[in-house]
Amino acid sequence: MSLVACKNPSAARAQLQRWRSSGARIGFVPTMGALHEGHLHLVHRARRENEIVVVSIFVNPLQFDDPRDFERYPRSFENDARLLEGAGASLAFTGTLQEFFPGEGPSTRRIDPGPCAQGLEGALRPGHFEGVATIVERLFAIVEPHHAYFGQKDFQQSLVVRDLARRRGSPPIRVVPTVREAGGLALSSRNVFLSPEERVRALAIYRALRAAHQAFQAGERRPAALSAIMLRELAQQKLEVQYATVRDPEQWSAEEPQHALQHAVALIAVRLGAVRLIDNWVLSSPDGAL
Ligand code: AMP
Q1: Which residue numbers are catalytic?
Q2: 136 Cβ closer than 6 Å to some ligand 1 atom
Q3: CB–CB of 249/290 below 8 Å?
Q4: Of 5, 224, 266, 290, which sits with the fewest C-beta atoms within 10 Å of its C-beta?
Q5: Element (H, E) at 277
Q6: In whole angstroms, what is the distance from residue 124 CA to residue 117 CA?
Q7: Taking the model in full, what pTM does it have?
Q8: Assign residue 225 a region: left if phi > 0, alpha if psi is -120 to 50, beta otherwise?
Q9: Whether the Cβ atoms of residue 280 and residue 246 lie closer than 8 Å to each other
């Protein structure tokens, strides 16, 4: 089947209605475009579990706390559509903020992102998760998917979205492991802004996560000790660290827990030149995946 590309949500809704009435299961992958292998991984997983795979491509202004980041975010709908066709997606759609929220003012449209929005990304990027929850809620209402797919790369976001889906009763959320370059750098649309030298320095993030994983697997359970291990690795490349910390993935807390953890995820955010990079690793799982 070739890809149907819709430039607005109403056209997408009409197309989806036709598929839904034929009984097909719909898998949904929300993205901001500038697609890479990480996004395509979500599409492949969705393809295995649904007859129809729908991808939204929308650089959502509501979730950007920095207007410059919004303006320069890479946009490439035509190229994205080609990649999606190759990956076997059935529908790609986009739209404007007005088309997604017709007739609504900025204050009426905000959705509470819930307790997992506290701390880390939520603290550093005010309004970010409200913006995420608001657009994801609207996208779910448009697509009404049988399953929705999110990357572990944005770990805290996956918790916020799971909560949101639980509150509204659907859809089931599938969290897909992070796709990395050969050296371990997590794929991200923003990586295009890294210089070759910055790319090398960024590998310290992966090393820091792996070092924490090794320590955890060897019996280290104290959050502060695990954080210190990560900070040591990051300091070697003089990265500007915003956080290098651990949380209990099953009991999210704004602050780092003080007690020993049986379940733990390590999370890092750094600034490197003009780029902000985030990554994570589930320390209590053998391969870092959730
Ligand atoms: P974005 O376009 O950055 O909003 O990402 C869309 C979806 O792709 C989100 O669920 C991300 O978590 C996911 N994603 C981004 N990068 C990766 C990656 N390297 N591996 C797996 N999923 C990813």
Answers
A1: 39
A2: no
A3: yes
A4: 224
A5: strand 275-282
A6: 11
A7: 0.98
A8: alpha
A9: no
CA gap 152, 243 in Å, rounded: 17
Q: How many CA atoms lie within 13 A of 109 on its CB side?
A: 22
Token pair recorded at residue 270 = 């750094």
Instruction: Give the closest residue (by CA) to ligand 1 atom 13.
Output: 151
pLDDT of 1 higher than 80: no
**pLDDT of 244-265, one tens digit each?**
999 999 999 999 999 999 999 9
**CA–CA dist 94, 84 (Å, integer):** 13
Residue with structure tokens 């050296």? 183
What is the number of alpha carbons within 13 Å of residue 13 lying toward its C-beta? 11
Residues recorded for the chain: 290
Assess contact for 183 and 41: CB atoms under 8 A.
no
SS3 240: strand
Q: Which residue among 35, 36, 37, 39 is best mutated to probe the pocket of ligand 1, counting the most ligand atoms within 8 A of its Cβ? A: 39
Q: Which atom of ligand 1 is nearest to the CA of 151?
A: 12
Say if residues 158 and 177 touch (Cβ distance below 8 Å).
no
Helix axis angle, 155-168 to 128-143, nearest 10°: 50
Which contacts (CB < 8 Å, 24+ apart) does range 15-20 have? 15/91, 16/54, 16/91, 16/142, 16/143, 16/144, 19/51, 19/52, 19/90, 20/144
User: Which comes out higher in pLDDT, residue 100 or 104?
Assistant: 100
Tell me which residue has its CA closest to atom 5 in ligand 1.
Answer: 31
